[in-house]
Amino acid sequence: KERFLISQKIFEPLLRGENVEEEIMRLNNNSEKVLQVYRVMSELIKLNNLRPKLVTTYERVAFTDEEKKVRITVDRNIKHQANDDKKNMNKLHAIVCETKIQGEPPEWYYNLVNELSLLQQKRFSKYATGINSVYFPARGTYNFYTNFAESKTISDRMTKNLEYLKKAFDLEQE
After folding, report:
1. Do the Cβ atoms of 99 and 72 come closer than 8 Å?
2. Which region, left, alpha or beta, applies to residue 30 given φ > 0 means left and ψ of -120 to 50 means alpha?
3. What band does 60 get if pLDDT is binned at 50, 70 and 90?
4. How many other C-beta atoms are found inside a 10 Å radius of the C-beta of residue 119?
5. What is the pLDDT of residues 4-23, one digit of tens each?
């Protein structure tokens, strides 16, 4: 997952596939890493003829400690809407609490999990949940997640994408 800043004025042009590289660079302090991510993302969108399918909105509160070894985010009012059908919207009736901890979790973390009766998940994706709830509601809203690493076969399209990513980031084959 890579992130970069984008302004509201170039959001629609970006989705249409227009070149907004200059503005991306300006907003992100001319970061070469951001430029590389933007170029890879743009090329993958073109290669696969990708189009926006889902709009996900939520409120987030984030916490971190002074050493930045613990990060906790709490997302609520999560709403998923089909990009091509504004009436097709679903609200997720859950609060998502995500923790990222470097090293062994502190004692207070285990106490917090127990006190709040948090249901730990191996993985969770707001995107996968949104696609499922908006486009495939018969599957159930919360139990859908496909992990590429668990796939038995790799499609030709995925092979091309992986080859492009390997070349773009000069990755070693795993």
Report:
1. yes
2. left
3. very high
4. 8
5. 899 989 988 988 888 999 99
How much is the pTM?
A: 0.66
Q: How far is CA 69 from each of CA 43, 114, 122, 124, rounded to the nearest angstrom?
A: 34, 21, 20, 21
Q: How far apart are CA 64 and CA 68, in angstroms?
A: 6
Query: Any idea what the Cα angle at residue 57 is, between residues 3 and 149, rounded to 5°?
Result: 55
**Residue with the two structure tokens 């609520």:** 76
Per-residue pLDDT tens over the stretch 94-143? 888 888 999 998 888 888 888 887 777 777 888 888 888 888 888 766 65
CA distances from 56 to 11, 15, 72, 128 (A): 15, 15, 20, 11
Give the orientation angle of helix 156-169 with respect to helix 32-48, to 10 degrees: 160
Residue 5's SS3 state is coil
Find, among 45, 30, 16, the residue nearest to 164 by Cα: 45
